[in-house]
């Protein structure tokens, strides 16, 4: 069932243009250039004073990206925590407020417990899940499915990009409901969303270069990932993906945090993977890259041609991504991030589909 691919993970990475396209078709009214949620939701985005998100691992990072989207596009305050913390912290939650849980399997014990806690507080619960028959899908008051299809590789790839796709559609719908988005802006966002599957396919064409780069990464003992804005959670996701399948120690940081500690780690032996589309805060990330370069750090830039030219830095490599609306960048940039982890692990001879100590579905806490 792996088709022409060596591993399920490779197959699932390459399936993304198709499954993201399928997910989009479910949430976007293409003829009218509008997001159209097929499910009627049992709450009103207009009256929410806050959105609480809980999830684990990669799904949590999808939630962190969504926090930026809900806050900027819908002006909706978001509180987010990993489910294992949220469930025991027992945060005060408004009756009739909204908790959003995100889970590929729909069976993650901590995520399920935080969903049950939210319900016990009288919250509406909305689940972004990939397995429609799962416990979380059954227990949530509403479900917005990701249409990624079965994900076999232990490291989440296509479920993640589909989660991002659904979450961006939700944020746009919330923005419209709350009067935070003009019709014009919504149309521009939908236009950008529609281009995403094609942009992801374009991103997979960087695979040859990334394979070469992976040989460099495989020699490292530690790898740093940096990003700002939505690229910050992408840095966290990049580091998680690399550590879980290659067993190389990796850390993701908000680029602005560099000088508050992690800069002490920088030398020629530490590759620094910078995720930086040419967005409004790109210049800020460039200053961080200069700080890294000044200390002999070897930068791998995942960015676009415009950004690479503007940065004018001597990088070890630049993985050139297509031009895009920065709002949709996380969905497209997921591809090179996954490919770096995948090829590094394959080059090192690791079992990428079944990494040690990990289970696909974490049904015990
Ligand atoms: C990372 C990974 C895990 C899961 C986490 C949550 O690649 O797969 O971090 O994302 O265990 O799982 P779900 O989404 O099934 O709740």
UniProtKB/TrEMBL annotation:
GO terms for molecular function: carbohydrate derivative binding; glutamine-fructose-6-phosphate transaminase (isomerizing) activity. GO terms for biological process: amino sugar biosynthetic process; carbohydrate metabolic process; fructose 6-phosphate metabolic process; protein N-linked glycosylation; UDP-N-acetylglucosamine metabolic process. Residues 41-180, 213-355 form the SIS domain. The active site is at residue 360. GO terms for cellular component: cytosol. Catalyzes the first step in hexosamine metabolism, converting fructose-6P into glucosamine-6P using glutamine as a nitrogen source. This is Glutamine--fructose-6-phosphate aminotransferase [isomerizing]. It comes from Methylobacterium gossipiicola. The chain holds residues 244 to 608 of 608 of the full protein.
């Amino acid at each position: 069932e792996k088709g022409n691919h060596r591993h399920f993970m490779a197959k699932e990475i390459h399936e993304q243009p198709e499954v993201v396209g399928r997910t989009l078709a479910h949430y976007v009214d293409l003829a009218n250039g509008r997001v159209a949620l097929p499910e009627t939701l049992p709450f009103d985005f207009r009256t929410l004073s806050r959105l609480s998100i809980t999830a684990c691992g990669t799904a949590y990072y999808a939630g962190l990206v969504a926090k930026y989207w809900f806050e900027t596009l819908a002006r909706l305050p978001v509180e987010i925590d990993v489910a294992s913390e949220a469930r025991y912290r027992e945060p005060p939650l408004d009756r009739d407020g909204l908790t959003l849980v995100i889970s590929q399997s729909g069976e993650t014990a901590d995520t399920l417990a935080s969903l049950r806690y939210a319900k016990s507080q009288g919250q509406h619960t909305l689940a972004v899940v990939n397995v429609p028959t799962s416990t979380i899908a059954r227990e949530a008051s509403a479900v917005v499915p990701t249409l990624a299809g079965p994900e076999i590789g232990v490291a989440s790839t296509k479920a993640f990009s589909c989660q991002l796709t659904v979450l961006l559609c939700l944020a746009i719908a919330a923005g419209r409901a709350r009067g935070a988005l003009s019709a014009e802006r919504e149309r521009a966002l939908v236009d950008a969303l529609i281009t995403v599957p094609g942009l992801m396919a374009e991103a997979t064409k960087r695979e040859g270069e990334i394979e070469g780069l992976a040989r460099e990464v495989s020699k490292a003992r530690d790898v740093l990932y940096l990003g700002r804005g939505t690229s910050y959670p992408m840095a966290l996701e990049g580091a998680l993906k690399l550590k879980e399948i290659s067993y190389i120690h990796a850390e993701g940081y908000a680029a602005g945090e560099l000088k508050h500690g992690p800069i002490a780690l920088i030398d020629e032996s530490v590759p620094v993977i910078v995720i930086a589309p040419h967005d409004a805060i790109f210049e800020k990330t460039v200053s961080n890259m200069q700080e890294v370069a000044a200390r002999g750090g070897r930068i791998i830039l995942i960015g676009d041609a415009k950004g690479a030219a503007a940065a004018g830095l001597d990088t070890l490599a630049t993985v050139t991504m297509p031009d895009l609306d920065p709002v949709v960048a996380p969905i497209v940039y997921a591809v090179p991030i996954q490919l770096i982890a995948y090829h590094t692990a394959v080059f090192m001879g690791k079992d990428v589909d079944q990494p040690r100590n990990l289970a696909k579905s974490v049904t015990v806490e």
